[in-house]
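Anyone? Bumping this.
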Amino acid sequence: MTAQLIDGNALSRQLRAQVTQRAQALKQHGITPGLAVILVGDNPASQVYVRNKVKACEDTGMHSVLESYDASMSEAALLARVDALNHDPTIHGILVQLPLPAHIDAHKVIEAISPAKDVDGFHVASAGALMVGQPGFWPCTPYGCMKMLESIGYDLRGKHAVVIGRSNIVGKPMAMMLLQQDATVTLCHSRTTDLKSLTLQADVIVAAVGKRNVLTADMVKPGAVVLDVGMNRNEAGKLCGDVDFEGVKAVAGYITPVPGGVGPMTITMLMVNTLESAERLLSNRAN
Ligand code: NAP
C-alpha cells in the first residue's frame, strides 16, 4: 500500500480563500478582522513565524499589527500592551509569540489576554471550554489536524486514535478534539511503556513529539491515518517530522508530509480563529 498524501498547502489555500470571502463580507458591516502579534526579543525562528502570520493576514484581507519589542522589555510593560489591545476595537485576536525572555512569566501574559481575543487558544478559559465542549478558540495546530481529517471525510466515531505527545498546545488539546468526535483516545508521552503496542492498534496516529523517527513503519497498522506535527532537522539540515515518512508511507492509508502538511494549517487556523472572533462580535451586536 502507498499512503495518500494529505496536502496541507492545498487545503490551506482552500480554507484561506473562504476566510478571504468571509472577511470581505464582514467589511460590508464595517468590521475588518484584526490580529495583533507581539514579539519580544530577536529569536530568529520567532521572527520568521510572526512575519508569516502578518503576511497571511494581508493575503486574506485582514488587518494586522506587529509590535516588536526589545528582549529587555519588562513583564509589566508587556502586560500593559496586552491590556491596551484587549480594549482596542480594531483588534479581534491577540497573539504573543512564544517563547518569551526568561524574566517574563509566559503563563501570566497568556492569562492577561481577553479570552474573547485568545485566537491561539492557549488561555486557561479556552482550554476549559474545549474540555467541556463549550464554544471557545481551539489551539491552531490540533485544530488544523482536525481539518485535515475532515478534508478526507474521515469519520472518527468508534475509531482508536493514538496521540504521541502531551503538551498543552498540541497533544492534550488534540486528544480532547478527537474525543469530542467520539474517537477512543490514547494519549502517550515520554513515560509511556511499549509505545509500539499502542500505535499498532491505532486507526489514527498523531505524532507531536519533536524527535525524528518516533514513528516507524513497524509501528503502524496497515491503512492507518498518520498526522505528523513534528518539526525537526535531519543531518543535512532539511526540515522533517517525527515520522519516518518513506517507511510509514508504504504502510499507512493517509499521511501528512513535512514540510507541506500540518505546518501551513497552523497559520491558516489562526486566520480562521481571528475571523471567527470578528464574526462573533457582529453576531453579539445583532443580539
Ligand atoms: P513539547 O512541549 O516538547 O512536547 C513534546 C511531547 O513529546 C511531551 O509530551 C513529551 O513527553 C513527549 N515525548 C518526548 N519524547 C517522547 C518519546 N520518545 N515517546 C513518546 N513521547 C515523547 O513539544 P510541542 O510543543 O508539543 O511540539 C511537538 C513537536 O511539534 C515539535 O517538533 C514542534 O516543533 C512541533 N510543532 C509543530 C507545529 C506546526 O505548526 N507544525 C506547531 C507546534 C509544534 P513528556 O510530557 O513526558 O515530557
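Late reply, but here is one note on the structure posted above: The chain has a mean pLDDT of 97.
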